[in-house]
Amino acid sequence: MSDAKIQPNDSDVDAFLASVDNEKRRTDAKTVIDMMTRITGWQARMWGKTMVGFGAYDYVYESGHSGRAMMVGLSPRKGSLAIYIMPGFKPFVELMAKLGKHKTGKSCLYVNKLEDIDLAVLEDLIAGSVDIMKDRHSWAEA
Questions:
Q1: Full-model pTM
Q2: Contact assessment for residue 29 and residue 74, using Cβ atoms and an 8 Å cutoff
Q3: Residue pair 80/101 in contact by the 8 Å Cβ criterion
């Protein structure tokens, strides 16, 4: 497998969170990390310098490019909390309609603050995402 730019590492998750300047973003990140820990049963790990991830899956594209990525994770960015839903959002149309105020990218859910969304729906989204990734890929706790 090729080396991806973002790899799991042994950096301290709590130290990273303590370095997040925006107190609200830091608190929301801790809430989502607790949620992901409970849902997955896995411990949070740093992926690169700014991403907190859970689990890992191996992928191979038709081009032959391969690598390893987190199963689910987040990054407390300056503009929003980015939550990584790796299978994307097509499998979750009904949940996304009930989630609340958010934006999406290909596999990123952007939330300004957790009060803007329904946390029970977010839990279902995270759990469903991990289930899909486990069905599709070879995976590990990380």
A1: 0.93
A2: yes
A3: no
